[in-house]
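Students often ask what a 'structure token' actually looks like in practice. Rather than answer in the abstract, let us consider PDZ domain-containing protein, a protein of 124 residues. Its sequence is given first.
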Amino acid sequence: MYEVSMAKPLGIVFEEIEIGNGVFVQDLVEGGFADTQGKIQPGDVLVGVTAIKVVGAKWERRMLPARKFDFDTAVGAIGSNERKWNCDDVVLMFERPSEADSDAVDAFLEFFEPPFDNPWKQQQ
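Now compare that with the structural description of the same chain:
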């Protein structure tokens, strides 16, 4: 598992694994940010992403486990990292299936899981 901080546009083509079972890197845009950074590879699975949540007059940015995100949720989380919230980057965590221990990654990601009564768990 590894983490990258990137400016948008990322230059990553994501594809849904299965509905509700996450997204993976299908391809990189040639010459795009991810391609030139050289860390992300096709086949890597998105397991965490920073996102912004606005509740009333307050906002919060936090890392969210993304293993079970559908495509739209993953893209929405990435897109929420906007300059108006003082975000100049998006932080992404990836799992490389050929090298990772998925159970250990899941145990690590539990740290980032919002509590049940947290606004991150409530529908907008």
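One point worth highlighting: The beta strands are 2-6, 12-16, 23-28, 45-55, 58-65, 90-95. Ask yourself how you might have guessed this from the sequence alone, and why that guess would often be unreliable.
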